[in-house]
Design goal:
26% of the residues lie in helices and 26% in strands. The protein has 688 residues and is an alpha+beta fold. Strands 8, 9, 10, 16, 19, 21, 22 and 27 form an eight-stranded mixed sheet that branches. The chain has a six-stranded mixed sheet with strand order 11-12-31-30-25-26, with no helix packed on it. The protein is elongated and about 115 Å long.
Amino acid sequence: MKSWIEVPTDSDFSLANVPFGVCSFPSSSTLSSTTLAPCTPRCCTAIGNHAIDLHLLAEAGLLDNLLMTTESDESRCSEIITNFHPRIVFSQPTLNEFMSCEKHVWVAVRNRLLSLFLDSSSISSSNNHIQIAIQADNRLQQNSALQSQCMHPLSTTLYHLPASIGDYTDFYSSREHATNVGIMFRGRDNALQPNWLHLPVGYHGRSSSVYPSLASSATTAENDCERNLVGGEKMSTVRRPCGQLQVDPLDPAKGSIYGPCKLMDFELEVAFFVGGPTNTDYEQDHNQQQQQPRGRPLTLSEAQDRIFGYVLMNDWSARDIQKWEYVPLGPFTSKNFATTISTWVVTSMALEPFRCETSAGVQGGGGEPVPLEYLKDPNYGSYDVNLSVSIQPSSTSASTQICTSNLKNMYWSSAQQLVHHSVTGCPMNAGDLLASGTISGKEQHNFGSMLELSWKGSREVELGGGEVRRFLKDGDAVIMKGWCQREGSGRVGFGQCSARILPAIPFPYESSKENEDESTAMQPEERYTNFKLYGCWWSSCSWTVRIALAAKGIPYEYGMINLDEKALTSDKHSSITLMQQQVPTVLEFMDGGNVVRISQSLAIIEFLETAFDHRGGRLLPLDPVARAKVKEIVEAINSVTQQLQNSSVMGMADSISGKEVLGNEFRKQAIMSGFSSVEKKSCHNSQH
């Protein structure tokens, strides 16, 4: 099956998709005077490289007389849907009113759009599931004037939150993720908490800080999710949060300080929007003599029909803030500062052909707890949605994919999450957002957060070009993608969920510095400035430090050392280094208002690694034993061989022996012996 609208083969928005979203358009767009202004958000769909204005399709009468089809073993019949008013519904600035309709309305609208986009000449009896019930409707295809008004390039479209989100709940439903985190903090034997296999664990999030990916300027003016351009794409931004940080990671009794988050993380998630009428019954209120709505639990069958559609989600996390605050009630400010979602909602109807088993296969197998009756899902499963995360540092236009996962890595299904959420009688409203929690697979490259990929900061994640990360840096763009595809069918994708991190803006609390020295509160780039490296062009130590500075991305001025006798014994030389008559390698910089000079390459590298731990490549191994072995080799070279190559030492050896030849032979034998010892030690270390 094919559309008369061009759809690139790699487009997320094929005829098999037909997602829903809310868009506005540049003021230069050509719209008739009787319609909404271009800058006014309205309901849209997407196909190929175009956003389609549903409001204009409704105004043109193309969404009238929608049909609801019912089937039985004996017959198939259709009837016109009443009490649905597309002109009103699709002129709204959110999808909430459309979401609040029953599922048969969503299906009917999607089917009508499919028929309007379908090229009747491409239908064949062997085509996929869509064409069985869809007949081509060429009214839009033959109306070029309407096409020019309702079809807009995605590249110039402005995106908004698809719904007014009343409530947002985040679950913790990937067993692989929950197991990884449990192992880190409680050990392998107690990885899963006792309740985890009995119910979908979740917590209430903050809907006011859910931001759209590829956000419009109108939206970003109202929150701290500014618009940016990355690689030619519009990209939202989020700001690194400030909050309370534990002073001593090993001793919470020492209290906290205020400052910017240092361990910022992403979480790869998929979320769904609740749709349909609110699950309420009416009870008589005897005090007020009137009926009051009361929430009631949903059944699994009802829950399936209440899932409108899915979006990608990045639930940003401040891990160090979370560590201090989460006991005993769970995360709070570490999670409420920003959540980014993709803007096109992929319907449950579009995902249905990709239904599959979860990574668990079954629930309650192998002697594990069987879900209680209300959570037993006869259609237990998930969707085969490929997921990926890439990071693009601010220093490059290239991004590096750091992990892949899949929505089937879920133990608790979306329907089970919704049923459990309502089990107490909680009313679930159209536009409510329920998220999966971090989705991780079994292998390291399938982990869905930096916390897991770096294993709590103990290992590096390579980005290419010498860049590494353990957690996210300012300027990093996190780009999430998700899609389904099978042979013979177009891609069903979500578009991007992307945002770039902006530096923190410290809150003006004078009291926040009472327990913190001012120098330790500053970022290294603020505290250490004006770097200058003194050295000689042929000095190996000087080149070692040059490489280290480049690896950390630290700009510096180079000061050439004059090697004649007068220069080496001058007052200027002695002010740079205490070691007269030696070729120095000295790093000079400002620490606040103080001039600091560090000589000796190993000491300089140790400083750069400690002070700029978050930047660039790693200079020394993270593992303590490996670091000690590296320094052992370096110290051996410094103490045994390096000194004998200095011109001052060479001169003393010649003067003591009285002959240059004897001095050279002494140096040769000593250096060869030293290198031989170092070589043996290096071989021993590599084997152990």
